[in-house]
Amino acid sequence: MKANTNTHIVIIGNGMVGYKFCEKLLARKKNDQEFMLTVFGEEPRVAYDRVHLSEYFAGKSADDLTMASKEWYEENNIRLFLSDPVVDIDREEKLVRSHHGHVVHYDYLIMATGSGAFVPSIPGVEKDGVFVYRTIEDLELIQAYARKAKRGAVLGGGLLGLEAAKALLDLGLEEAHVVEFASRLMPRQIDDAGSKILQSQLESLGLNIHLAKSTQEIVGDDCIKGMQFVDNAFLDVDMLVISAGIRPRDELAKIAGLETHPRGGIIVDNGLRTSDPSIFAIGECALAHHMIYGLIAPGYEMADVVANTLTGIDKEFLPYDMSTKLKLIGTDVASFGDPFIEEPACITIRYENKAKGIYKRINVSPDGKELLGGILVGDAEQYNMLLQTCKNKTILPPDSEDLILGSRGGEEAGAGVMSLPDDALICSCEAITKGMLCHEIGEKGNNTIDLLKKSCKAGTGCGGCVPLVKDIIQGVMKQNGQYIKTVICEHFDHSRQELLDLVKMNGLKTYGEVLNEFGHGDGCEVCKPVVASVLASLWNENVLTKDRAPIQDSNDRYLANIQKGGTYSVVPRIPGGEITPDKLIVIGQVAKKYNLYTKITGGQRIDLFGAHVNDLPLIWEELIDAGFESGHAYGKALRTVKSCVGSTWCRFGVQDSISFAIEIEDRYKGIRAPHKFKSAVSGCIRECAEAQSKDFGIIATEKGWNLYVCGNGGSKPQHAQLLASDIDKETCIKLIDRFLMFYIKTADPLTRTATWLNKMEGGMSYLKAVVVDDLLGLASAFEEEMQTLINNYKCEWKEVVGSPELRKRYNHFVNVPEKDPTITFEEMRTQKRAKEWV
Amino acid sequence: MEPTHNTKDRITWHLACNVSDIPEDGGGCALIEGKQIAIFNFARRGEWYATDNQCPHRQQMAIGRGMIGSQGDEPKVACPFHKKTFSLKSGQCLTDDEYKINTFPVIVRENQVYIGL
Ligand code: SRM
Ligand SMILES: Cc1cc2nc3c(=O)[nH]c(=O)nc-3n(C[C@H](O)[C@H](O)[C@H](O)COP(=O)(O)OP(=O)(O)OC[C@H]3O[C@@H](n4cnc5c(N)ncnc54)[C@H](O)[C@@H]3O)c2cc1C
Ligand code: SF4
Ligand code: FES
Hints:
The structure holds two protein chains of two kinds.
Chain A: E1 7-12, H1 16-28, E2 35-40, H2 62-65, H3 70-75, E3 78-81, E4 86-90, E5 95-98, E6 103-105, E7 108-111, E8 115-117, E9 130-132, H4 136-146, E10 151-155, H5 159-170, E11 175-179, H6 192-205, E12 207-210, E13 215-219, E14 226-229, E15 234-236, E16 239-242, E17 246-248, H7 251-255, E18 266-267, E19 279-281, E20 286-288, E21 291-292, H8 296-310, E22 324-326, E23 333-337, E24 347-353, E25 358-364, E26 371-377, H9 383-391, H10 402-405, E27 425-427, E28 432-433, H11 434-442, H12 449-456, H13 466-479, H14 496-505, H15 511-518, H16 527-539, H17 554-558, E29 561-562, E30 568-570, H18 581-593, E31 597-600, E32 606-611, H19 616-625, E33 638-643, H20 657-668, E34 677-682, E35 696-700, E36 705-709, E37 721-727, H21 729-746, H22 753-759, H23 763-771, H24 779-791, H25 796-801, H26 804-807, E38 825-828, E39 831-834
Parallel strand pairs in A: 1-2, 1-7, 2-3, 7-19, 9-16, 10-11, 10-16, 11-12, 18-20, 33-34, 34-35
Antiparallel strand pairs in A: 4-5, 5-6, 8-17, 13-14, 14-15, 20-21, 22-23, 23-26, 24-25, 25-26, 27-28, 29-30, 30-32, 31-32, 35-36, 36-37, 38-39
Helix pairs in contact in A: 1-8, 11-13, 14-16, 21-24
Chain B: E1 4-6, E2 11-18, E3 26-32, E4 35-42, E5 47-52, E6 54-55, E7 60-61, E8 67-71, E9 74-78, E10 85-87, E11 103-104, E12 106-109, E13 112-116
Antiparallel strand pairs in B: 1-2, 2-13, 3-4, 4-5, 5-11, 6-7, 8-9, 9-10, 12-13
The complex binds siroheme, flavin-adenine dinucleotide, iron/sulfur cluster (SF4) and FE2/S2 (inorganic) cluster (FES).
FE2/S2 (inorganic) cluster binds near residues 55 and 84 of chain B.
């Protein structure tokens, strides 16, 4: 079909798919005169991201959710009528008429009216306090009502229902219930076993689940008071959200005489044309291949098909994969392909771990060659890979259980993302294939997620494909010989590990030497701290002497953490969290004298905030006199070794955890690494020191100590894993020496131990082999190197305090002794705080 | 501090500090006529630069404490707070078009550093 100049296109519905259609059509048009677009939207706002609607409760504003601003429509010459639904279509004259009386002619009409919540005809649904969950207005009403409600329920235990139930909890309701008619949760996605695991996970979140419940009546006078079930049970609730499915908005199509399905939906052919060839229907209002596709990805694909058709390219809408991953409930749920197919049509492999709340099921073809579908509950990390394997009919490895269990040999199961065919769909929201991504990355050099989001929109929809896209970036760069060397920056074509070896072999000690020998240009804020860290990790000399001060990251440069407003914090070391009353008094005195805000940190010590740079040496002088040392809170170095009170006081303690923690903290203090590292020692299995959340953690046993490694808290918490059990102190220290040295020498910059391990080929078993079984024959070298670092340790603040040359650098101005006059504080709870950013 | 006058450019030269007050390949801050000026001794290139000490991103007085270096050929400094980088020549922010800082001419005579305002 050839579009003539000034083809008039009217779009009914300014939802996600209607918007996407405009965007796709604009991207394909050849000149400005080609199309005239008019959009009618019934809602008062421009199209917004309904998929992430629940984030509205988490603080996102309507603006944050907007897909494109009103200006975008203006700039692209699209006439946009909001709060103005179309009420009539005159197919003879090709005119639409809106509620406000606008009459617009069309050559092509696009119905993108979406769907509404399906509300079952239960007596009482009209009562106050009963809501649906579809638009921002719905959420506003729910939010307002929830303020005075205590107990809420959601009718429907499907994908959306669970999302809504979680939202009720987040809104602060005391009780949230899910009522489902079927005998399991998410009946369209998961099986009974998966539902059981999911149920126990959700119950631990605080949701109450009622299955196989048929609601007879919603009880109450004007407002809902409770739900009466057919089995005589009664649930006392004061609000209800109905999420019992969707109903396509086909009422306008019906009036216009278009063919619709008795159970709802505007019937379309493979080209998404309705029974009137000038009218298309896309998104959740369209019934294609005998079904309503209630997901965003197929909706976007429909938009793409019609945009293609109208710009002269034949494209068909093919039956679309309905695999899904639920995003927010705090526990992963995913299903793909055919999740329910049963033996003998397939071989089913199940893995279930009730303690951890994990259930996985895959269905493999009887000949063992193809993945037909599956279900993941509790851990959906493999979802993307499995989905791709399934969709692309990739031949499976002989031990197909490796797909969900991971191969015990350490290698990744399956052949990895680069073995996917070029037409494998990676970002289904934006219909981007692996081939397109490889082209963007390889030919056009868009080799970061941000660049790709800009250049082709990959990952901008539901965001589910981002991990896979990252793997493809790595894969392509590896193929082009670019990867492997994760080079530091434009000034060094080496990885941190290579550079460390080079610097060591050549005995280099200053940044200038390293840059001259192995780099080019003048360096930058990326490579300078990396080299600084390498030099410190190798020689452990004072970080501020030689030419090293200006290459330190901001905090290391002043041996203090820079804070909002330009003041610094002071953190003295308090090994194991143990401190004498005398030392506490000194901290108090110093804080008073220099007017510092004091706070107990999450690392069992005390932080003094708000110090002027000029005061730092004076403050430290007093602290050092009282026997304190630097706590290295500013450095990529050992932070704290937390401890619990252990057998010295605790009635459960089986070993003296405080003494061990202090010994460990003294041993590794001041040692610099690619990132900070933390430790803890617990006196028994109750684990009050949270050792398993540390880079290395030690837990006392009856027989000795268990050593765990590679855990961390922070934004992506990960538990540490057991490296050795029931070992004595000496062995424990030996293993930590080796482990830390191995980490220091091989990790990329700013990589915590957990991330380092996650990227390590062979994973934990390899790490164990190197550290415990000395696979590389480097164990004694590691121990010696660590001992050298320990021998070279000096408190760097003590050195600064004693050196007039170094003290001189602690002035805000080089020409006058004054402090920075722009620094101001505000008062809060009788202490001071930094002034808010302007 | 005695200002020397250069009438031709209508710039006033101010004595800021001694060469040794600013670390090699590093920076510092001087108070000149009540204004905070960041000064950089780019020893590796044998060049000196001066800019505003205040970062336009969050109005922090910190540019003089930033790390210097190059992007391609362009000399630059990174604000210690959120690592926005600025050209030392033009003052243009290289990581965010929105921001820009002022730059000032520098001359070094007999181990003394003068800034033109
Ligand atoms: C003071 C303190 C918060 C508090 O008031 O309790 C704190 C404060 C800061 N943390 Fe933290 N963290 C503090 C305990 C923690 C903990 C809890 C712990 O150690 O038990 C964690 C999670 C555990 C972990 O690290 O595994 C923690 C995870 C982080 C992270 C995220 C690290 C990660 O790998 O994801 C950062 C960011 C970073 O380091 O890049 C961070 C960074 C920061 C910085 C350095 C941010 C900055 O650059 O200004 C804050 C500096 C404050 C200052 O000037 O002293 N802080 N931070 C705690 C100091 C502990 C200490 O005595 O040294
Ligand atoms: C809370 C929630 C969470 C979701 N999560 C996911 C998810 O994780 N993954 C996923 O794939 N999908 C999810 N979905 C589904 C997804 O949002 C829909 O598939 C998508 O919004 C469909 O887009 P659409 O444009 O077809 O319909 P809509 O976005 O509903 O847009 C249709 C628009 O047309 C308007 N309209 C109707 N009739 C007229 C008329 N006569 N005149 C003018 N305008 C009219 C409507 O008011 C509406 O604004 C979720 C939906 C909800 C509600
Ligand atoms: S959690 Fe964030 S805000 Fe709080 S101290 Fe740590 S880095 Fe600062
Ligand atoms: S204040 Fe300078 S980058 Fe934010």
